[in-house]
Sequence to fold (158 residues):
Amino acid sequence: MSWLSKITEVATGGIGQLFFDVAKTYFPPDMSEADKKAALLEFEKLEMQRNREAHDASVEAENALTQRIKDLEGTAADLARIPVLGTVVLFLRGCQRPLWGFAVLYLDWKWFTEWELTQKQESALLVINLLVLGFLFGERAVKNVSPFLVEVFRAKKG
Fold:
């Protein structure tokens, strides 16, 4: 589920029940339970329609963004049409994540086994670790690992 659809879900969720609760106070006192249930059903249909519209709008916005990125940046198929350089660029683009990952893994290994770094160098290496971790594995990985890294650095100083 995309971030845009999550926002629309939060914005429209439960609105049918809310309408029903508000309208219930204005129902005539002699309104039957069947009529109240029919009104609730209509409010829920309205909510489902609004949710569907919001979902369709978020899908349309995501597709438009994807198309805009393709139009501005091109695709791998565009690169493949360039005889030699296109193949090289595709190869380098595919190697980027593993290359950065192994480079940082090597730097961390040297840091914890051999190097005596200054505070500034350790801070720079920490920033590099967080950037590469975020690039390779996403924001959630950085949030999950950051407290552990802070504890490791505190233990190393002590």
About this structure: The mean pLDDT is 78. The radius of gyration is 27 Å. The first helix runs from residue 3 to 12.
